[in-house]
């Protein structure tokens, strides 16, 4: 499996939970099979959308093994190693590898206050801990620092990194990354994590997308990908506009936390489609209230995802 | 002149200065004539790139009158009213109107710590002070707050605002703004201020662009615009890639302020092309040093803008 | 008048306004006379609390001339020159000097994105524009950059700056500034702008205080100062605790902007004591609602400032 | 052991490491014995200064057991449970309790994007997991949110929290917390984490201090505490000034990360005094270079801590 293996639509799969907070493996299997059958090009388990920060090691292991089994080799599986401490990130990466993922995704350290050199040593150590490829996960809204283009492309050229999942919201930076990567011979597979600007990001050269909203409308993102590949950019834009309208589900919960509103909306939308059983959120997050859920359901219905 | 008048490539024109810090009107005329003859669809005088924050009222007035005269009605002129105090912004707006601009551009208040209601009253008051259309200028990196989609579209629907210049770097927010504006009947002309993602922003529905780099390669941006209008998106992308490579000029000055590095690079690049006489910056900013200027010149030359 | 002239309790005087937004000179005179008769050691006109950012040049000039006349030489008057553009700050500084202030207070540039060298040139230029002493105003919440200890003490040692008004909320930085200033022979008069930690700041070596709450209870701050000077630190602490309880007035307005809540609370409290006629705020800020004003009045009453 | 047990000088003990990154238990024992014999009123193991974020579970367990044994019941031991995921924080808290700490210290969740209600549930769950008291650790520079006065005092009044370690650098907020806690009957023991404003914080009512610099000069902090208790505030201020000058060691490493510069400086200073063997830092941080270490040593020597 080469770096070029990683491309296209790779949803960060939700972790469905039971009412008592355990991983609902039946729902997770069902969701993952649905994603694969919708044509996604990979799945990303244990990302922020997968509530990785809220899960214990045992829950994480159960989730990743469930996903790997459900995917059954049909598409690559990427897994997030999100933790304090390089040693623990490396341990999580090894656990992911043992569970069968095809690539590991890791951020810069959190809580610690590190500079670029320290982040580089951290990423090198995680890469050295596993045989599968490592993707850097650039998500300043959670990690509170931005990975530099220079660092990423240098580590790509050396073979330390196989790619980047960019959730920085910095489109200027992403274009600079695409250009610098191209100039270096494209060692990195470059994914954007922003689900409403996929048309433009594919146009400028993104290799793929990790759309949380892909849990809700995987087929839509696959169509968007296919239209872009076919050079039908205005049709791609129309599909993206439809998906952007659907993305309004994450803005329905007023006065709730970012995680409650975002992941919560995806869970409601997936549950209403029968993809998962429960909208339960990971402790200490509470699920969205009924009124919010109804507004979300109306948006999902308007998008044509709930039948007539 | 209707709101639809405002579209396309509208460079935020540099304010060339003499060595003693006065407006170099001969250079400014030459630059503006060059821009118009390159096919731009408008010019924006007294924006951040025009060093508005560093100029006195008299210098501002001289700059805008010089630009209006040089444009000579061939394209619309937008002018920035950037000040503390609603009353002073309104006074600047009236001065711009008296000098002949076709639209005024204003930010939320700076220094003051205001909420959305106060920002709304501020924008309403500025709009009421002039007969020409008002554009809101959303630039959190300088104003330290973000204008909301709801506020902008509501003021657009009411006719208070004619458009938005978005320099927020928030592409997700910009797409939401485009969608909400479309849903409201497109009262707003929507411009992006980010010069390296123009292809994607035009694809998703931007009405125009205010590229600082347009001072350096106006013809390139006009080509990009024309390719996009023709639906030749991959050619547009190639042109944008070329312009993005040229944009690396703003990253050459190490250890300098944002204004010194950015505006300074544009001035060096314009001066090397003979568009302006001097690279002098507005007090208290010093021009870029020779070594940096040489790196910038090399990039401009590589872009084919300096002959053989 | 030497730098040592500037010390003690120097309230940033409110700018009372009429219902139609003009400077209420009668109220301003009354307030200032009350402050001086309460024993303050100076007054600061046209600071953030004085709504300087909302006033026109003519209003500013009227305010400062009213204050200078009301003070009548009994204590020093400091005036804020808060503006975009070094040239305009210098012009404001000259206007303040012409109106009779004893010192000018200026911030780093706003809106512009400058580095330390540029800020230094800015401060030098403002200092050179006037004969009265210049104080640097360090207020990152509004200016969005922090002035460094090294810059401030160096400019103090050179005689460019006579002092600092520190509203940074960075008590660690303030102590470092006090220590570095002492090591340099104490060229700077160092004022804290935070009204609820005055006891500790005086203990560690502050030369004075610019308490917005001093508009509401000037006598309390004078007592606090006198107790500190007398080395009666635990009594000073008790007085500060009383004043800190009174400061809760600024937290009463829920869902309002920082300026509406803070200056608004001071105006309500001053108006309830008869020190000013109206709680009108500067456009585009609206005054606090009646319910909030009643909560503020109750706190002021509990502090013993409204008689029985 | 009651809440009132927790007071005074409680250094966040360094975790000395060997060259290969393992916990140097001999040095840790020596350091802790030195601290206790210097008169500190408690020690805090596995805080930010203890490099908790860089240590594995096994290393953490070794560190806390070493500290508990070295303290031998002479003063209370507080231990940090710093982790992603409520469940893992609770597990760490139980491990600390099993190792013999007298109190656990926990932050709001990191990485996750939670609101106040979610943070409250998190803290309640951690408190419920152990029988020893829980302290909330408010450190926005690492956790990127601020705990509110209302939340802290409410949880204190309910017995969920026994205290707060405030490393927020928000002295206004800390005074409000002290006042609100007093009004509620002082359920919380309130510690400041800022080592250079201890005199003022004790004056305003802090119950204790967690000074990283206490690893370098514990006796100085104990003297400062004793002087404050004796009401000798000006002598306390002089001692604090001496310690503040010593704190300049953390500003000697130019161009290094916050953790490298801060913890690194404490380690150099402790090593030069013979309190620990090595200045090794936790991976991926490198120790400070020799030139920086020499500057630090000179400051430590000037403070009288290295003999003649």
TrEMBL record, chains A, B, C, D:
Keywords: Lyase, Schiff base. It comes from Isoptericola luteus. This is Dihydrodipicolinate synthase family protein. The keyword Lyase applies. Pfam families: DHDPS (PF00701). The lineage of its organism: Bacteria, Bacillati, Actinomycetota, Actinomycetes, Micrococcales. The keyword Transcription does not apply. Belongs to the DapA family.
């Amino acid at each position: 499996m080469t770096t070029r293996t990683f491309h296209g639509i790779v949803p960060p799969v939700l972790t469905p939970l039971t009412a008592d907070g355990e991983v609902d493996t039946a729902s997770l299997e069902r969701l993952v099979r649905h994603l694969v059958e919708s044509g996604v090009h990979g799945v990303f388990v244990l990302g922020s959308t997968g509530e990785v920060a809220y899960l214990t090691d045992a829950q994480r292991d159960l989730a990743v093994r469930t996903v790997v089994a459900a995917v059954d080799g049909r598409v690559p599986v990427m897994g997030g190693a999100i933790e304090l401490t390089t040693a623990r990130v490396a341990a999580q990466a090894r656990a992911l590898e043992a569970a069968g993922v095809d690539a590991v995704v890791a951020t810069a350290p959190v809580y610690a206050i590190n500079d670029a050199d320290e982040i580089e040593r951290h990423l090198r150590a995680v890469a050295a801990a596993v045989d599968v490829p490592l993707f850097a996960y650039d998500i300043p809204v959670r990690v509170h620092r931005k990975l530099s283009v220079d660092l990423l492309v240098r580590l790509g050229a050396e073979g330390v990194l196989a790619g980047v999942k960019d959730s920085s919201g910095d489109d200027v930076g992403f274009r600079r990354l695409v250009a610098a990567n191209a100039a270096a011979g494209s060692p990195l597979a470059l994914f954007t994590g922003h689900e409403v600007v996929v048309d433009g990001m594919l146009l400028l050269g993104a290799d793929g997308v990790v759309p949380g909203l892909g849990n809700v409308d995987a087929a839509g993102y696959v169509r968007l990908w296919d239209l872009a590949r076919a050079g039908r950019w205005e049709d791609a834009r129309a599909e993206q506009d439809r998906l952007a309208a659907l993305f309004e589900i994450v803005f329905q919960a007023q006065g709730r936390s970012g995680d409650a509103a975002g992941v919560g909306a995806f869970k409601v939308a997936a549950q209403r489609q029968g993809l998962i059983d429960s909208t339960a959120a990971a402790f200490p997050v509470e699920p969205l209230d009924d009124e919010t859920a109804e507004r979300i359901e109306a948006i999902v219905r308007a998008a044509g995802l709930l039948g007539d």
